[in-house]
């Protein structure tokens, strides 16, 4: 086993040397991806297109002939990071610097890039990734190419993709969002919701299965409303995906509570491949704030959904997103958020301090919450969620869980890492030959964000 590992290291090493030699003749690209899984999936398509054009990927941005930033606009921080990185490069750096993704879909950012960042020679948006070959050709000829489409006229199928590893894969099922939550920029950057046809989705899932992938995560900004534009239903799509041989696990994200149907809840009970985990963003626990956010459900309705889910699948893992400090949030509203967290007992939560996004209604709302108050509230929320996550992970110590082995642990290559059906990371000693296989593991320790275990004989 040890010799196999060192052999592959030597191969990688000589491969890198070979790449450096080749880089004098072939073109190298690097892509830096920010934001959500949708962007990760878009980057896979962009990599696939670039490799079909003869480019080779490098993870060293400095040696790349083409350096692309696939950007996110949900929060301000990643935007600043992108600009900071780009400003390190001069106009005559000798490389094509490009920006794509959600940031460039915003008029103000596009204008800033056009006027203030002359070193950026290629800009394309979330709707015209398929145009990359023509745009890049012009950029290679020395033109400055800034081409962003406002909306997607149609879904372009059949684009190549370079996926990173062979156990699990993302599959887009819809693009865009119709919900207009008042804090969110996504409907403006990704456009209105459009669903892929079930035929195209199933054919992609089949191809993944044939290539050895075991798990698919169906992706959309709001997967629960999948198919409304085609007169179809998300639960029906799940049933079709479930039939694909070779796929052992199905997940999906992100779900909007207002579109979580009884049929979908029943799918968790009826489809054995559908993993018992649901990410169900609550965002706030106060009806007053939920209304201002335009979430279109009340805390009672949300709690009813949770009760139905737990009734259908006892032990289902629930995770969520929570925004703290939305405009007008009082201490009383915030206590309602803490209360819903106590009541639901999420396995984990992504918690965010509200930050205004230009162009969204919430950015113009009066009563923006003081930054210090926001910070103090988020610490209280994190403390509470950490306590609950720790307790839940302790409760499962001693039980046996099904694990899809994804690879070796990042911190300890002698150990394997994988995910439970409830989407928890678990590390345990084992042979690398188990990668890609589903195994039974006894949980021996529960930490805050991961588990330790040992293989069952
Ligand atoms: S559902 Fe709301 S938060 Fe999610 S992408 Fe759509 S507008 Fe944004």
Layout of helices and strands, plus pairs?
Elements: H1 2-22, E1 28-33, H2 37-52, E2 56-57, E3 66-71, H3 76-86, E4 96-101, H4 107-116, E5 120-124, H5 132-140, E6 145-147, E7 168-172, E8 174-175, H6 186-190, E9 194-195, H7 198-210, E10 215-219, H8 234-242, E11 249-253, H9 262-270, E12 277-279, H10 287-292, H11 299-312, E13 317-324, H12 331-344, E14 348-353, H13 371-395, E15 400-408, E16 415-420, E17 425-429, E18 438-446, E19 451-455
Parallel strand pairs: 1-2, 1-3, 3-4, 4-5, 5-6, 7-10, 10-11, 12-13, 13-14, 17-19
Antiparallel strand pairs: 8-9, 15-16, 15-18, 16-17, 18-19
Helix pairs in contact: 12-13
Iron/sulfur cluster binds next to helix 6.
Description:
Helices cover 35% and strands 21% of the residues. By secondary structure, the chain is an alpha/beta fold. Strands 2-1-3-4-5-6 form a six-stranded parallel β-sheet, sandwiched between helices. The chain has a five-stranded mixed beta barrel with strand order 15-16-17-19-18. Strands 7-10-11 form a three-stranded parallel β-sheet, with helices on both faces. A hairpin with a 4-residue loop joins strand 16 and strand 17 (425-429). Helix 12 (331-344) packs parallel to helix 13 (371-395). Mean pLDDT is 92; it is low at 1-23. Residues 177, 179-181, 184, 186-187, 221-222, 256 line the site of iron/sulfur cluster.
